[in-house]
Amino acid sequence: MARLPRFSLAGMPQHVIQRGNNRSVCFAAEQDFSAYAYWLKEYSVEHGIAVHAWVSRLTYVHLTTNT
Fold it and tell me: For residue 39, is it within any domain?
């Protein structure tokens, strides 16, 4: 069963978790990580999302954001 949509209130912080499929590696090379960091900044600015903190590991990424 699919997860029900979550409420997203403007101005409220969100904790976003991204994981590799079956805990596989998300960043196979340094270039992968650099590209992720670049696009995270580009798209957060483009869409007006403030990224307050983020942690990146080989198999997951945690972001704390708000709009």
Answer: yes
What's the chain's length in residues? 67
| Apex 39 CA angle, 10 and 26, nearest 5 | 100
Tally of structural domains, the chain? 1
Note down the domain range covering 23: 14-66
pTM for the full predicted model: 0.77
In a domain, residue 44? The reply is yes
For the chain (67 residues), the mean pLDDT of every run of 10, in chain order, is 80 88 90 93 94 91 89
